[in-house]
């Protein structure tokens, strides 16, 4: 993707990433994590502000904070870059992601749609739909679809 990205720091198994958002509200530490789901071939991508939890005495990723640092596209491009890195190391794994809110999930759908041609060179891209029983199913990606989340897999 031809969008500027932040420099990523990662652990040795490329499941944890860290970067600094730099914008109108200063520097904000961001974190990205890839965690296995109940299905060990699907990993959940989570990201948000990296904050110190005083109760747990450790850093956590808070995906509910609205940083509004004026660098949304650069942040999303950086998260996408982590997916390229993770899937290059683990091409057999699928990556699931969704927004912490419906509006964020729509934002991700728009970002995918705007970059679909480029992303499709590397990834199979699916939307996910949740049924009334809470089961999640893959569906063909549609730029106008109302999805629960998304699954990508390296080609």
Outline the fold blueprint.
Elements: E1 9-10, E2 16-23, E3 26-36, E4 42-53, E5 58-62, H1 72-89, E6 94-97, H2 102-114, H3 116-120, E7 123-130, E8 136-140, E9 149-154
Parallel strand pairs: 4-6
Antiparallel strand pairs: 1-2, 2-3, 3-4, 4-5, 6-9, 7-8, 7-9
Jot down its keywords.
155 residues; alpha+beta; nine-stranded mixed beta sheet; globular
Mean pLDDT: 94
Domains, number:
1
> Helix/strand-derived class?
alpha+beta
Order of SSEs, N→C? Answer: EEEEEHEHHEEE
Task: Specify Rg, calculated over alpha carbons.
Answer: 15 Å
SS summary, helix count: 3
Low-confidence stretches: none
Q: What spatial form do the alpha-carbon principal axes imply?
A: globular
The percent of residues in helical segments reads 10-25%
Short synopsis of the structure:
With 155 residues, the protein is α+β, with helices and mostly antiparallel strands. Helices cover 23% and strands 39% of the residues.
Please explain how this structure is put together.
By secondary structure, the chain is of the alpha+beta class. It has one domain (9-154). Helix content is 23%, strand content 39%. The chain is built from 3 helices and 9 strands, in the order E-E-E-E-E-H-E-H-H-E-E-E. The chain has helices at residues 72-89, 102-114, 116-120, and strands at 9-10, 16-23, 26-36, 42-53, 58-62, 94-97, 123-130, 136-140, 149-154. Strands 1, 2, 3, 4, 5, 6, 7, 8 and 9 form a 9-stranded mixed beta sheet that branches. A hairpin with a 5-residue loop joins strand 7 (123-130) and strand 8 (136-140). The longest helix is centred in the middle third of the chain and has 18 residues, at 72-89. It is globular, with a radius of gyration of 15 Å.
